[in-house]
Design brief:
By secondary structure, the chain is an alpha/beta fold. Helix content is 44%, strand content 14%. It is built from 15 helices and 15 strands. The structure holds pyridoxal-5'-phosphate.
């Protein structure tokens, strides 16, 4: 139990600030950080957290301390190749030097905004983003986390259309705030919090007809529909790629019934799947699009929505605070990171890099699937959003553990326990990809023996 002790708090904060500001830690200091981290997580974060982590890392003593480009390191300098990418944050790599330089320059000028003067970077970012997003997407609202962006998208759909219901999909993942989890497609994350937003219907993913039937039936019984929300590829459900034409068909349905089409590009966007935005593949412009994760270049958290002018009605123009007013949303530091990220992505054609490296991975993964069909059941992917499916969740955990022991970081997906993702930075070199594949094969061989597959 932690009791109130201001003197101890000051001493501890002073010691830790010193660790952060120091270039080198002593062996004793490192050992102490490991010991205290375990204690602190158990006492003040959640005792379950380390147990959960351990199932992947086999050892809770790996304490993350630094990172660079395509890997991160623990306190003792053990290097792990990053094939998780922070669930999609690190598309431009870890501490990308160009983005870091921009953010440091902004930090030396001013970090957070007055809330009252006009902050130019927010405007520049909104304008730049409008130029790289599909069709006539124009108005931006910046937030801090993905779920918060989803809240804004849901509210805007009701505000703009006057409708009440939302249609979401089975297996969907949009975050864990109340609105976002109301749209979520996995019972385990919803049950304890029921009732949530009542006006939601879930339909099968990839089935546009089911979407239309739900809308038609609601209207038939006197209800109204504000919006549909979909991921263009379901990431957390295990990289579920819908049939080609799905997004276009949903777009047509939304137009037919006057329903806002919300496309959640938080994970698929910013080059991850081989194009800047996944909805470009079907040449579809959503009414509202969300983005996040890689948007801040792996350095600053920044997320948001961008909407078409038809969504940005007079009520919202007359009262800009009606949608939301997050204190930190679109702050200068975060905007500087996002602007620098867009520059980096365009200069280096990161979407193309993700596409080519994704194809390289897929060829090798398909070969492994052929060689070990009883272990590796399926591989799916677009760009560098890839997943491997195993016969049982336990096999997937074992392979993730095997990879971690061989210094490659991966993890499962949130909604589908049988899948393990490969979601590395786009700047991961081909040599490192080959290394990952070698280590994956070794881990598969071990799992094959252990599970007698
Ligand atoms: C498609 C999608 N939407 C929303 C979110 C929620 O984002 P956050 O975790 O930043 O709230 C995620 C997170 O994984 C996501 O994959």
């Amino acid at each position: 139990m932690t009791l109130c002790n201001k003197k101890a708090a000051l001493e501890q904060a002073t010691r830790i600030v010193n660790y952060i500001e120091k270039d080198e830690l002593t062996k004793e200091e490192k050992d102490l950080i490991v010991k205290e981290s375990i204690l602190n997580f158990n006492e003040n974060v959640n005792p379950g957290w380390l147990e959960y982590r351990k199932s992947v890392s086999t050892d809770a003593t790996f304490v993350e301390w630094t990172d660079s480009v395509d890997h991160f390191e623990d306190l003792y300098g053990n290097e792990f190749i990053d094939c998780l990418g922070g669930f999609g944050i690190f598309t431009c790599g870890h501490r990308n030097p160009e983005i870091l330089k921009t953010v440091k320059a902004q930090l030396d000028r001013y970090a957070l905004h007055s809330q009252e003067l006009v902050d130019p970077l927010r405007g520049y970012l909104a304008n730049t983003l409008a130029q790289i997003t599909p069709g006539d997407l124009q108005y931006c609202f910046f937030t801090n986390g993905g779920a918060e962006a989803i809240e804004m998208a849901l509210k805007l759909a009701r505000l703009a259309t006057g409708g009440k219901y939302y249609i979401s999909t089975i297996g969907a993942f949009h975050g864990k705030s109340y609105g976002a989890i109301s749209m979520g497609g996995k019972g385990a994350y919803r049950q304890d919090y029921l009732p949530m937003i009542q006006q939601v219907q879930h339909v099968e993913y990839g089935n546009a007809e089911a979407m239309e039937t739900a809308i038609k039936n609601l209207i038939h019984v006197g209800e109204s529909v504000a919006g549909i929300i979909i991921e263009p590829i379901q990431g957390e459900a295990g990289v579920i790629i819908p049939p080609m034409g799905y997004l276009k068909a949903v777009r047509a349905i939304c137009d037919k019934y006057g329903v806002a089409m919300i496309v959640d590009e938080i994970q698929t966007g910013m080059g991850r799947t081989g194009t800047m935005w996944r909805c470009e593949v079907e040449d579809v412009t959503p009414d509202i699009m969300t983005y996040g994760k890689a948007f801040g270049g792996g350095i600053m958290p920044i997320t948001g929505i961008i909407a078409r002018p038809n969504m940005w009605g007079q009520k919202l123009i007359d009262n800009p605070w009606i949608l939301g007013s997050p204190t930190f949303g679109g702050n200068p530091l975060a905007c500087s990171a996002a602007l620098s990220t867009i520059k980096f992505m365009l200069e280096h054609d990161i979407p193309k890099m993700a596409k080519e490296k994704g194809e390289y991975f897929m060829v090798k993964l398909e070969a492994l699937k052929k060689k070990y069909p009883t272990v590796l059941k399926e591989v799916r992917g677009a760009g560098l959003l890839i997943c491997m499916e195993f016969p049982e969740a336990e096999v997937g955990y074992e392979i993730t553990k095997g990879l971690f022991a061989r210094k490659v970081m991966t993890a499962g997906t949130l909604v589908n326990a049988k899948t393990v993702r490969i979601e590395p930075p786009a700047v991961l070199s081909y040599e490192k990809i080959d290394l990952v594949m070698e280590r994956l094969e070794e881990s598969i061989i071990d799992a094959k023996k252990e599970f007698k597959l």
